[in-house]
């Protein structure tokens, strides 16, 4: 049997007056409002970060060159994901400004995509990468370092990492560029099961964010004066109007 799903927001429902919409929103927890009014998938009370997405996401803008940067990297054959962060020294706000999200590709492809954002930017990686690779069991961390990435193993304390990210999001210390669509999708679905355990699926960028908050902030550095951005060698395109990159 064929199925079809249509995405519909409250704005596309003509019989729902503005007053009724406002009244309905008042009775919905903030972290469920986007799901109810815009049709975004959400996990309700099971959400790990029960926040309104609109309070987290900001429009893309040009980053200042003097802002320090770093990234978190989660590796795997089915999905390798990285998230890049820059900190505004004047306000203390950190911006997640770019993402890499690709599956079933050799490490060199991920490396070239990472270098394209700036090979001078340091990163932290899933600590399990010290003892395995995406496919053959070699030490993936050493492989990535050997291809020119400035990487260190991250601390993988799940509860502590979630707490750090939760506090940063809640206090407005972490904002996410609107162009980071994969991060936003994972954010909506990041949840616990009935036993309170984190559901380990579609959470690669969530993990990369945790790695950064536990281990990457102290490594953040500014662009060297002689740094040269590398040209993309793989099929990646710059998103319209944004500073993030996505695979085709």
Structural key phrases:
248 residues, 2 domains, two-stranded antiparallel sheet, 28% helix, disordered C terminus
What is the gist of this entry?
The protein is of the alpha/beta class. Helix content is about 30%, strand content about 15%.
- Inertia-based shape: globular
Distance between the termini: 30 Å
Order of strands, widest sheet: 1-7-4-3-2-5-6
Number of strands: 9
Main beta sheet, described? Answer: 7 strands, mixed
Q: Helicity, in percent?
A: 25-40%
Q: How many helices in DSSP terms?
A: 7
Number of domains: 2
CATH topology of the largest domain: Nucleotidyltransferase, domain 5
Q: Can you describe what's shown?
A:
The strands form two sheets. A seven-stranded mixed β-sheet has the order 1-7-4-3-2-5-6. A two-stranded antiparallel sheet has the order 8-9. The protein has two domains: 31 residues, no CATH class; 191 residues, Nucleotidyltransferase, domain 5. With 248 residues, the protein is an alpha/beta fold. The protein is built from seven helices and nine strands, in the order H-H-E-E-E-E-H-E-H-E-H-E-H-H-E-E. It is globular, with a radius of gyration of 19 Å. A hairpin with a 5-residue loop joins strand 2 and strand 3. The longest helix has 13 residues. The protein starts with 17 loop residues before the first helix and ends with a strand. Helix 5 packs across helix 7. Helix content is 28%, strand content 17%.
